Amino acid sequence: MSNKEKINLGLKSLSGLNRSELKKELSFMDIPDSKVNMRISQIWNWLYARGAKSIDEMTNLSKEFREELKKRFNLKRPKIVKQEISTDGTRKWLIRFLDGSEIETVYIPDENRGTLCVSSQVGCTLNCTFCYTGTQRLVRNLTSQEIVSQLIIAKDSLKEWNNPIRQITNIVMMGMGEPLYNFENVRDGILTFSDDAGLSISKRKITLSTSGIVPKIEPAGNEIGVMLAISLHATNNDLRDKLVPINKKYPIEELIKACRSYPRVKNSKRITFEYVMLKNVNDSEKDAKKLLKLISGIPSKINLIPFNSWPGTPYECSDWDQIEKFSDIINKGGYASPIRMPRGRDISAACGQLKSDTEKEKASIKYKKELAKLKSGRIRPL
What we know:
CATH topology of the largest domain: TIM Barrel
Number of strands: 13
Radius of gyration: 22 Å
CATH superfamily of the largest domain: Aldolase class I
Distance between the termini: 58 Å
Number of domains: 2
Shape: elongated
Largest sheet: 9 strands, mixed
CATH class of the largest domain: Alpha Beta
Strand order of the largest sheet: 3-4-5-6-9-10-11-12-13
Structural class: alpha/beta
CATH architecture of the largest domain: Alpha-Beta Barrel
Order of helices and strands: HEHHHEEEEEEEHEHEHEHHEHEHH
Number of helices: 12
């Protein structure tokens, strides 16, 4: 980064902008109409194919034009407050945006692929009772720029730019927040992820997970067109009302109907049903058979997720033998039922464990106070 750019850190960053935002920003510059699309394509290539960190790197732009750009813009990324690396290779970044809001992003390496788990909101509004992230109040939606910046930061950290070997091959919108409650920004962010001239992540390698915002499921298929995952976790409304409270607004019958009519759903583009395994809650053989009946006829697979514990939770993970029995019933019913092995538990990066450090500190203080009251006899356990 040049000295001049260091002085201009308060200017607007181009990093993470989608095409329409980039065009809008450049419209304030004196660029001939005949050259606008060319300039957008050049800058886009530097941002998302080469990972430029300074405007001075954009050497196919004239020096004069670069100087004009630097008067208005920089390529600054949001701040990485903390990076943690698990014993299994999983990485978690705590990212802070300009307004001080924090989110977590996780990278999960596997033998043949690497998956980036991206957040869509600061906090969450759904209050799913088994999810640690759900105990953090919703602060705000992320912008599409902030969504895209998570991939940029991960590629920076993994030194992936200009490397012929890709480490990040898949993206899952399964981090903090409910993606379909931030529909437009998630849509624009994913379209930037999948743009062939830049980051170029195939839509078949991008999965959007929702707890069941039924009115947005069909538009997601039409306007975004990526793989769909449903956080199901129960086979009847009474239990799902408790585990996933949004079910009171959009009950299972409506959710399953929306899945059956999801645009382009077929065997090659199956819906994934996510099912967290909670001991003596939803893990019986009877539950497995009900699950088969519920999703009958929908091209799909069922991801079984061993519950990842967190401070103060009333739930326990199902016994491993029970998880395998559940999986066997699903498999025999004709559906793939992989058991998702927990990754990054030692750094609280596993499914349902994401929460910003500020909120963790508040929750830890509250938990210690409640525990002290319990030990002193001032409150009685349920």
